Amino acid sequence: MLTLTDLTKSYRTTEVETRALDAVSLEVSAGEFVAIMGPSGCGKSTLLNILGFLDAPTSGSYQLFGEEVAALSESALTRLRRAHVGFVFQSFNLVDELTVEENVAIGLLYRNDVGAAKHRIAEALDRVGISHRARHRPQQLSGGQQQRVAIARALVARPKLILADEPTGNLDTANGDQVMGLLTETAAAGTTIVMVTHSPLHAAAAQRTIRLLDGRVVSETVL
Fewer CB within 10 Å: N-end or C-end of the chain? Predict the structure, then answer.
Protein backbone atom coordinates (compact mmCIF):
# COMPACT_ATOMS: atom_id res chain seq x y z
CA MET A 1 0.00 0.00 0.00
CA LEU A 2 2.75 2.44 0.94
CA THR A 3 6.48 2.25 0.35
CA LEU A 4 9.21 4.52 1.67
CA THR A 5 12.69 4.32 0.18
CA ASP A 6 15.66 6.17 1.71
CA LEU A 7 13.31 8.85 3.03
CA THR A 8 15.11 11.79 4.62
CA LYS A 9 13.80 14.91 6.34
CA SER A 10 16.20 17.69 7.31
CA TYR A 11 15.62 21.04 8.94
CA ARG A 12 18.18 23.76 8.27
CA THR A 13 19.12 26.96 10.01
CA THR A 14 21.96 29.29 9.09
CA GLU A 15 24.26 27.40 11.44
CA VAL A 16 23.14 23.78 11.65
CA GLU A 17 21.25 21.02 9.88
CA THR A 18 19.06 18.67 11.91
CA ARG A 19 18.12 15.37 10.30
CA ALA A 20 14.77 14.26 11.71
CA LEU A 21 14.57 11.21 9.42
CA ASP A 22 17.66 9.53 8.03
CA ALA A 23 17.27 7.18 5.04
CA VAL A 24 14.11 5.46 6.30
CA SER A 25 12.93 2.56 4.15
CA LEU A 26 9.64 0.90 5.01
CA GLU A 27 6.72 -0.97 3.47
CA VAL A 28 3.21 -1.21 4.91
CA SER A 29 0.72 -3.59 3.33
CA ALA A 30 -2.98 -2.92 2.86
CA GLY A 31 -4.91 -3.85 6.00
CA GLU A 32 -1.80 -3.96 8.21
CA PHE A 33 -1.70 -2.48 11.71
CA VAL A 34 1.77 -1.03 12.38
CA ALA A 35 3.02 0.62 15.58
CA ILE A 36 5.94 3.05 15.58
CA MET A 37 7.91 3.45 18.80
CA GLY A 38 10.98 5.30 19.97
CA PRO A 39 12.13 8.02 22.37
CA SER A 40 10.96 11.63 22.08
CA GLY A 41 12.65 13.39 19.19
CA CYS A 42 13.42 10.22 17.25
CA GLY A 43 11.29 11.24 14.23
CA LYS A 44 8.03 9.40 14.89
CA SER A 45 5.68 12.36 14.44
CA THR A 46 7.72 13.69 11.51
CA LEU A 47 7.27 10.34 9.78
CA LEU A 48 3.53 10.34 10.45
CA ASN A 49 3.19 13.90 9.11
CA ILE A 50 4.94 12.90 5.89
CA LEU A 51 2.71 9.84 5.50
CA GLY A 52 -0.33 12.14 5.80
CA PHE A 53 1.05 14.80 3.40
CA LEU A 54 1.24 17.34 6.22
CA ASP A 55 4.98 17.64 5.58
CA ALA A 56 7.26 16.80 2.66
CA PRO A 57 10.50 14.80 2.73
CA THR A 58 13.80 16.45 1.87
CA SER A 59 14.80 13.48 -0.27
CA GLY A 60 13.87 9.88 -0.96
CA SER A 61 10.70 8.26 -2.24
CA TYR A 62 7.19 7.90 -0.82
CA GLN A 63 4.79 5.84 -2.91
CA LEU A 64 1.14 5.45 -1.95
CA PHE A 65 -1.11 3.15 -3.98
CA GLY A 66 1.79 2.90 -6.46
CA GLU A 67 1.98 6.66 -7.04
CA GLU A 68 5.02 8.77 -6.22
CA VAL A 69 3.72 11.36 -3.78
CA ALA A 70 6.38 13.93 -4.66
CA ALA A 71 5.09 14.00 -8.24
CA LEU A 72 1.57 15.00 -7.19
CA SER A 73 0.33 18.58 -7.15
CA GLU A 74 -0.91 20.20 -3.95
CA SER A 75 -4.52 19.88 -5.12
CA ALA A 76 -4.00 16.21 -5.96
CA LEU A 77 -2.50 15.60 -2.52
CA THR A 78 -5.47 17.33 -0.90
CA ARG A 79 -7.91 15.14 -2.83
CA LEU A 80 -5.95 12.01 -1.92
CA ARG A 81 -5.87 12.98 1.76
CA ARG A 82 -9.61 13.71 1.88
CA ALA A 83 -10.53 10.48 0.10
CA HIS A 84 -8.18 7.97 1.70
CA VAL A 85 -6.49 9.22 4.89
CA GLY A 86 -7.97 9.65 8.37
CA PHE A 87 -6.18 11.20 11.36
CA VAL A 88 -6.45 10.54 15.09
CA PHE A 89 -4.46 12.85 17.37
CA GLN A 90 -3.50 12.73 21.04
CA SER A 91 -5.19 16.09 21.71
CA PHE A 92 -8.50 15.07 20.03
CA ASN A 93 -8.68 18.36 18.02
CA LEU A 94 -12.45 18.69 18.36
CA VAL A 95 -14.21 22.01 17.80
CA ASP A 96 -15.81 23.09 21.09
CA GLU A 97 -18.56 25.13 19.40
CA LEU A 98 -19.82 22.13 17.41
CA THR A 99 -21.84 19.13 18.54
CA VAL A 100 -20.47 15.61 18.41
CA GLU A 101 -22.19 14.84 15.12
CA GLU A 102 -21.06 18.17 13.64
CA ASN A 103 -17.47 17.38 14.63
CA VAL A 104 -17.74 14.00 12.92
CA ALA A 105 -19.22 15.71 9.85
CA ILE A 106 -15.94 17.59 9.41
CA GLY A 107 -14.55 14.31 8.07
CA LEU A 108 -17.02 14.59 5.18
CA LEU A 109 -16.32 18.18 4.13
CA TYR A 110 -16.67 18.83 0.40
CA ARG A 111 -18.95 15.84 -0.15
CA ASN A 112 -22.21 16.77 -1.87
CA ASP A 113 -24.45 13.82 -1.00
CA VAL A 114 -26.19 15.05 2.17
CA GLY A 115 -28.26 11.89 2.58
CA ALA A 116 -25.21 9.64 2.38
CA ALA A 117 -23.35 11.96 4.76
CA LYS A 118 -26.06 11.68 7.44
CA HIS A 119 -26.04 7.90 7.13
CA ARG A 120 -22.25 7.75 7.41
CA ILE A 121 -22.18 10.03 10.45
CA ALA A 122 -24.78 7.90 12.24
CA GLU A 123 -22.91 4.74 11.26
CA ALA A 124 -19.56 6.09 12.52
CA LEU A 125 -21.04 7.25 15.84
CA ASP A 126 -22.70 3.89 16.36
CA ARG A 127 -19.47 2.08 15.53
CA VAL A 128 -17.59 3.84 18.34
CA GLY A 129 -20.52 3.61 20.78
CA ILE A 130 -21.17 7.33 21.13
CA SER A 131 -24.52 7.75 19.31
CA HIS A 132 -26.28 8.72 22.54
CA ARG A 133 -23.99 11.78 22.76
CA ALA A 134 -24.57 13.01 19.20
CA ARG A 135 -26.09 16.36 20.28
CA HIS A 136 -23.62 17.03 23.08
CA ARG A 137 -20.59 19.30 22.79
CA PRO A 138 -17.01 18.12 23.45
CA GLN A 139 -16.73 19.83 26.85
CA GLN A 140 -19.68 17.72 28.05
CA LEU A 141 -17.75 14.50 27.36
CA SER A 142 -15.02 12.60 29.16
CA GLY A 143 -11.58 12.32 27.58
CA GLY A 144 -12.29 8.78 26.43
CA GLN A 145 -15.57 9.84 24.83
CA GLN A 146 -13.86 12.74 23.06
CA GLN A 147 -11.26 10.40 21.59
CA ARG A 148 -14.04 8.10 20.39
CA VAL A 149 -15.58 11.09 18.61
CA ALA A 150 -12.19 11.79 17.03
CA ILE A 151 -12.01 8.18 15.84
CA ALA A 152 -15.52 8.44 14.41
CA ARG A 153 -14.42 11.58 12.52
CA ALA A 154 -11.48 9.61 11.11
CA LEU A 155 -13.70 6.67 10.13
CA VAL A 156 -16.64 8.53 8.63
CA ALA A 157 -15.10 8.92 5.17
CA ARG A 158 -14.15 5.22 5.19
CA PRO A 159 -10.43 5.89 4.64
CA LYS A 160 -8.01 3.22 3.50
CA LEU A 161 -5.32 4.55 5.84
CA ILE A 162 -5.60 5.86 9.41
CA LEU A 163 -2.67 7.69 10.99
CA ALA A 164 -2.86 7.77 14.79
CA ASP A 165 -0.43 9.95 16.77
CA GLU A 166 -0.37 8.86 20.44
CA PRO A 167 -4.15 8.19 20.41
CA THR A 168 -4.14 7.04 24.05
CA GLY A 169 -1.61 9.56 25.37
CA ASN A 170 -4.17 11.73 27.19
CA LEU A 171 -6.31 8.87 28.48
CA ASP A 172 -6.39 6.76 31.60
CA THR A 173 -5.81 3.02 31.34
CA ALA A 174 -9.47 2.00 30.97
CA ASN A 175 -10.26 4.57 28.28
CA GLY A 176 -6.95 3.89 26.54
CA ASP A 177 -7.80 0.21 26.34
CA GLN A 178 -11.23 1.03 24.87
CA VAL A 179 -9.66 3.21 22.19
CA MET A 180 -7.14 0.49 21.35
CA GLY A 181 -10.01 -1.96 21.06
CA LEU A 182 -11.68 0.31 18.50
CA LEU A 183 -8.47 0.66 16.50
CA THR A 184 -7.91 -3.10 16.57
CA GLU A 185 -11.45 -3.70 15.32
CA THR A 186 -10.92 -1.12 12.57
CA ALA A 187 -7.74 -2.85 11.44
CA ALA A 188 -9.45 -6.24 11.51
CA ALA A 189 -12.12 -4.81 9.18
CA GLY A 190 -9.41 -4.05 6.59
CA THR A 191 -8.28 -0.47 7.27
CA THR A 192 -4.52 0.11 7.32
CA ILE A 193 -3.37 1.78 10.55
CA VAL A 194 -0.01 3.36 11.34
CA MET A 195 0.12 4.36 15.01
CA VAL A 196 2.76 6.25 16.98
CA THR A 197 2.82 5.22 20.64
CA HIS A 198 5.03 5.21 23.72
CA SER A 199 3.10 2.28 25.23
CA PRO A 200 4.59 -1.21 24.72
CA LEU A 201 1.24 -2.67 25.82
CA HIS A 202 -0.67 -0.79 23.12
CA ALA A 203 2.03 -1.43 20.52
CA ALA A 204 1.47 -5.14 21.17
CA ALA A 205 -2.02 -4.76 19.64
CA ALA A 206 -0.38 -4.08 16.27
CA GLN A 207 0.83 -6.75 13.88
CA ARG A 208 4.27 -5.18 13.62
CA THR A 209 6.29 -2.74 15.71
CA ILE A 210 8.92 -0.48 14.16
CA ARG A 211 11.44 1.23 16.43
CA LEU A 212 13.09 4.51 15.50
CA LEU A 213 16.21 6.01 17.02
CA ASP A 214 17.82 9.26 15.82
CA GLY A 215 15.66 9.22 12.69
CA ARG A 216 16.57 5.69 11.65
CA VAL A 217 14.72 2.37 11.74
CA VAL A 218 16.69 0.29 14.23
CA SER A 219 14.42 -2.75 14.59
CA GLU A 220 11.17 -4.37 13.48
CA THR A 221 9.17 -6.89 15.47
CA VAL A 222 6.40 -8.99 13.95
CA LEU A 223 3.80 -10.13 16.48
Answer: C
